[in-house]
Amino acid sequence: MTPEDASRFIAYVLRHAPESIGLALDAEGWAEIDALVTGAVAAGRALTHAQVVQAVDAGAKKRYALSADGRRIRALQGHSTPQVRRSFEPAEPPAVLFHGTATRFLASIRAEGLRPGTRQHVHLSLDEATAVQVGRRHGKAHVLRVDAGGMRARGHAFHRAENGVWLTEAVPPEFLWGWPESAA
Predict the structure, then answer these.
(1) For 96-183, CATH number?
(2) For the chain, which residues make up each domain, given as ranges?
(3) Helix (H) / strand (E) containing 113
(4) Where does the pLDDT of residue 178 fall: very low under 50, low under 70, confident under 90, or very high at 90 and above?
């Protein structure tokens, strides 16, 4: 398995389907690395302990964390599995955050705002360049600006994951701007 394939597989298992390899996660998303490797191999995936550790340090996204003793791993955010309910401390967001999306989703976002979908939180970026990269994963990218300061003033909670991704439960449409002319 290439390092990129290993990282994608680990993300899928830790965020969305630990049961697909018989893996148990605790409420904060931690899994024993040995159990992850054993489950992957039993499911026909050639994953090694070294590849798991490498995935933690690889790439700019910093998707994972290792426990202090180096025996457990977790995804930092993006969970859709109900047994994981990571607790994040509230954080004061910057005045403006960014959300990258594909243009095909703009009409529904304009009507409903940003919803977490199958995930537990809406993910927001600190900078526009990161948001563009996120939006490109799903098609032609467009970046919306989020009035995070206005949301916070109205009582919306924000959290910051260890890798710098900003999280909130939802973003109502009145806190979004930067629509393309065709969606205005």
Answers:
(1) 3.20.170.30
(2) 3-75, 96-183
(3) none
(4) very high
Beta bridge partners of 160: 166
pLDDT higher than 70, residue 184: no
Give the pTM.
0.69
- Average pLDDT for 22-38: 94
Contacts of 4 (CB under 8 A, 6+ apart): none
Q: Count of CB atoms within 10 A of residue 135's CB?
A: 22
Q: So what's the pLDDT on residue 155?
A: 96
Q: What does the DSSP assignment read for 38-75?
A: HHHHHTT----HHHHHHHHHSSSS--EEE-TTSSEEEE
- How do beta strands 72-75 and 31-32 pair? antiparallel
CATH class of 3-75: mainly alpha
